[in-house]
Design brief:
37% of the residues lie in helices and 21% in strands. By secondary structure, it is α+β, with helices and mostly antiparallel strands. It has a 4-stranded mixed beta sheet, with no helix packed on it. Strands 6-5-7 form a 3-stranded mixed beta sheet. Strand 1 and strand 2 form a beta hairpin. The radius of gyration is 25 Å and the shape is globular.
């Protein structure tokens, strides 16, 4: 998921290096060369994504940021589970994936798609991308029915959604069950972001009388999107692909039941394979296992040592936690603190 520091540095400095080396006459050539170098060094991109990168290298920093916040949110939501997204974010932009289409993979695709849309929208709002800014459709429009006027700088949500769809969905080329699953879950992630944007308003008038109110759209905290998608994960539905009448390729997904061809809801996360136990390392599925994972001996949740360690037992160790405490401010201008220590017992899975 992460764009490495060297790539970010290269992305930011190559255009300026080109200006110094050859002046205005060959700036476009240097920019094209810089984009080609950057995109060729980014592991894990599909061919269509690599082509996209060469056209829009300026957006890759925001895309990398979106992949990072999606990964970090995934790791937060599953920090106490056997599968904890730990492989995501390693080596490539999208990281190592599970090899089966289980519900955990459904969540990771949705949160990454939402994360990239979120980062693009944020970059537009801060003026970090040249082709977008505030939502132009919401500037100065007066809503008679609601009695307020659009004002401020509304987040250009539609642009971020389109951008994420164009880049993230470019990975899916083959028309099979896993591709349809991924595309559906990508869409759910973006849809949950779009449904959870906020409307903020400000009153204008004498003594705050609110004779006129202006409103604008802002992004929520991404943690909210994580919680919403975790709920979708808990309610994910198993599906299977149905082939079209005149083609061998998969045409659409249906719920895996005996009751006809009912399609999943647009807000359902979907999966095609049952999840493994994630107890042991399994290259065939991509499971990393839980050996060495921290667990909680007294927890009633999934991080309980018996559950996390799958009955293999666990090791106990002790360490000393040291921190500054009882800090006091002295006028003027000094802060003094005491040093506190605590002996902590911890447990790791065999």
């Amino acid at each position: 998921m992460r764009v490495t520091l060297s790539l970010l540095h290269l992305c930011r400095t190559l255009p300026y290096i080109g200006l110094v080396l050859c002046g205005d006459g060959c700036v476009s050539s240097v920019l094209a060369l810089g984009a080609s170098i950057i995109c060729s060094k980014m592991a894990g991109l599909a061919p269509r994504q690599r082509a996209f990168c060469q056209i829009r290298p300026d957006a890759m920093v925001a895309i990398g940021t979106g992949a990072r916040i999606g990964t970090e949110e995934c790791q937060h939501q599953f920090q106490h589970s056997r599968w904890n997204c730990s492989a995501l974010g390693e080596k490539t932009l999208f990281g190592q994936e599970l090899n089966i289409g289980c519900r955990e993979m459904a969540f990771s695709y949705a949160i990454l798609s939402a994360g990239i849309a979120y980062a693009i929208i944020s970059a537009c709002n801060h003026g970090n991308l040249t082709d977008c800014g505030c939502d132009q459709e919401k500037i100065g429009y007066y809503d008679k029915g609601k009695g307020w006027r659009w004002g401020g700088c509304s987040a250009d949500v539609a642009h971020g959604i389109r951008f994420s769809q164009e880049f993230v969905d470019a990975r899916e080329v083959k028309r099979n069950a896993r591709t349809l699953m991924n595309l559906h879950n990508n869409h759910v992630g973006r849809q949950m972001l779009e449904k959870n944007v906020r409307l903020e308003c400000k009153c204008h008038g004498v003594s705050g009388s609110c004779t006129l109110k202006t409103c604008w759209v802002t992004l929520p905290n991404f943690r909210e999107i994580g919680f919403v998608l975790k709920e979708r994960y808990e309610q994910a539905v198993m599906v299977e692909a149905v082939r079209g009448r005149r083609q061998m390729q998969a045409a659409f997904l249906k719920l895996k039941t005996t009751h006809g061809y009912r399609k999943p809801a647009a807000t359902d996360l979907v999966y095609i394979d049952r999840s493994p136990s994630f107890c042991e390392e399994e290259p065939a599925t991509g499971s990393l296992g839980t050996q060495g994972r921290m667990c909680n001996r007294t927890s009633p949740q999934a991080d309980n040592c018996e559950l996390m360690c799958c009955g293999r037992g666990y090791n106990t160790f002790q360490y000393t936690h040291v921190w500054q405490c009882d800090c006091k401010f002295h006028w003027c201008c000094r802060v003094t603190c005491s040093t506190c220590t605590e002996q902590i017992h911890a447990y790791t899975c065999n």
